[in-house]
Amino acid sequence: MRGSVGEIYGRYAAKFGFEGGEEESTWKEIQKGFVDAFRQKEPLVFPGEPKAAIAQLERQWWRELVQRTFAPLGPFPRIEEFFETLYSVFRTSQAWQLESGCQELLSQLRKRGKKLGLSPILIRAFGIYSKTSKSVNILTMSPFPVSHQLPNRVR
User: Fold this and answer.
1) What is the mean pLDDT of the chain?
2) Which residue, 3, 98, 108, 109, could crosslink 114 as a Cys pair with Cβ 3.0–4.6 Å?
3) Closest Cα to residue 120, out of 53, 55, 31?
């Protein structure tokens, strides 16, 4: 990522009137709020739901997480506008950066037939795999331990 969740959320929140969003002390509070909310949130999996509904369910899951992140920090009247921008930012490489040599390493592992676990967010943001690539097992990963991480099949 291009900074901590707290920093990225804070910088964007400031653009939507959230007081203190540019301050490092606020980033720490946002980070704590995010970690707490993430740990309390149900897993980001939707077994039995139709494939067509998954994108909307994921979006709602993240919306609730962001709302829970900011709830203990005081009023944030423009949180919906903030969320829409934030959600768009995190779907691109604006919020993410790959470590040096990452794509080369992934390519080498793939050529060796290794099954890889990557975040679907990173796959979308960086286009690591094209739609025509071989089937790859993808694990939904997070920066925090989650006991309910389940594999999804991506083609």
Assistant:
1) 80
2) 109
3) 55
Neighbour tally for 27: CB within 10 Å: 22
Q: Where are the domains of the chain?
A: 5-90, 102-154
Task: Please identify, in words, the CATH class of the domain defined by 5-90.
Answer: mainly alpha
- Strand, coil or helix: 37: helix
Asked if residues 90 and 58 have their Cβ atoms less than 8 Å apart, the reply is no
* Tens digit of each residue's pLDDT (9 = 90 or more) over 50-83: 989 998 999 999 999 999 999 999 999 999 999 9
Strands (E), the chain: 136-139, 151-154
Neighbours of 69 (CB within 10 A): 25
85: Cβ–Cβ under 8 A, 6 or more apart, which residues?
A: 12, 15, 16
